[in-house]
Design brief:
heterodimer; A: alpha+beta; Beta-Lactamase; 3 helices; 5 strands; B: alpha+beta; four-stranded antiparallel sheet; disordered N terminus; NO_sig/Golgi_transp_ligand-bd (chain B); Trafficking protein particle complex subunit (chain B); endoplasmic reticulum (chain B)
């Protein structure tokens, strides 16, 4: 597994046609580790129960965030490894790529984490993740019947996300 | 890739959907009136307005972060500036100013000269002690709590009580960093 998109084994092929679902999964977590949304479009291999899977994903990102902040060569002040950081503080990693998938990550200062797993040749998805965050604000946060911190069960939001992700190349 | 600079409050205010100012003012007035009728005690109404503001703030912060594109503020000074210049402009259409910093930089005052909530409003004698705009203090407290800052927000000056401006004192109590939420043994 290569981290942080280092040297690629195969030369980059031309971008695939944007049709069908290019994305595999989407996760949205809040600052307390509650998985607000999990969407799956293309995941042939499932090894864990969904609860374990969510915990694993959240834990992975939490650790990656501390590690990347700790190893930052440009920052002057570094916390100790394991010390919790304020959301958005320090350097934040935004994606890693393996030979079979690419995981893109975005965290807001309010602690909302959006993770999108796609095929490995996807370009930088930071703007797409921001767009998904905007969708979250419009369809979920502004819904008066939604209690913040609970899993999202709104068809309208799910459909909007599905449609947007389908259009990603 | 260089970080995108936050859009100024004016630019965002121009791009969001807007509602008729009078409708907004009258709706808020109706809420306060109803609370006064239901609760009768002015202190209770103040508390309820603050709680409502808190619930709004908790959600509003996500919309603010999504639309304004600000990155994490480096310190509380920057936070207060962003609230006054970008936040107030974006949601109320007025720009506030920040003054009266204390020595440690944890307390400041946000001054509002213009407040759309209080257009047409005059407090009668029966409502002395009412903080009519208390929803704003709740909103700021709720929003800051979602970005890990515990604050205390109080009114220092209130135009409806005869002062010349609205002055909100925002005091940072502490910063609460994110903890790993799952227990280690699981």
């Amino acid at each position: 597994m290569q981290f942080f998109g280092g040297s690629e084994i195969s030369p980059s092929p031309p971008a695939p046609a944007a049709s069908g679902n290019n994305a595999h999964m989407l996760y949205i977590f809040n600052r307390n580790g509650v998985c607000l949304l999990y969407r799956e479009w293309n995941r042939p291999l499932k090894t864990l129960s969904s609860q374990q899977d969510h915990k694993l994903m959240f834990g992975l990102l939490f650790s990656l965030k501390s590690l990347t902040a700790k190893m930052d060569p440009t920052s002057v002040e570094k916390g100790n490894l394991g010390v919790p950081q304020l959301p958005g503080q320090g350097c934040s990693f935004h994606s890693f790529r393996t030979n079979t998938y690419k995981l893109s990550f975005m965290e807001t200062p309010s602690g909302i984490k959006i993770i999108l797993v796609t095929h490995p040749r996807t370009s930088d998805l930071r703007d797409s993740l921001k767009y998904i965050y905007n969708l979250y604000v419009e369809y979920v946060v502004k819904n008066p019947l939604y209690s913040p911190g609970t899993p999202i069960r709104y068809e309208l939001f799910n459909k909007a996300v599905d449609q947007y992700v389908r259009g990603l190349g | 890739m260089a970080p995108v600079a936050p859009k100024s409050g004016d630019a965002i205010f121009a791009s969001v959907d807007r509602v008729n100012a009078e409708l907004f003012t009258l709706t808020y007035g109706a809420i306060v009136r109803q609370l006064l009728t239901d609760l009768e005690e002015v202190e209770e109404v103040n508390k309820q307005l603050d709680q409502m503001g808190y619930n709004i703030g908790v959600r509003l912060v996500d919309e603010f972060l999504a639309k304004s594109n600000v990155s994490r503020c480096v310190d509380f000074r920057e936070t207060a500036e962003v609230i006054a210049k970008v936040g107030f402009k974006m949601f109320l259409g007025v720009t506030a100013s920040v003054t009266n910093w204390d020595a440690e930089g944890t307390t400041c005052s946000i001054i509002l000269e213009d407040n759309p909530l209080v257009d047409f409003v005059e407090l009668p004698d029966t409502c002395q002690g009412l903080y009519y705009c208390n929803i704003l203090s709740g909103v700021i407290r709720g929003a800051l709590e979602m970005v890990s800052m515990k604050t205390e927000v109080t009114w220092l000056r209130d135009m409806l009580r005869g002062d010349d401006v609205f002055e909100l004192q925002v005091k940072l109590l502490k910063q609460v960093p994110e903890e790993y939420p799952y227990k280690d043994d699981e």
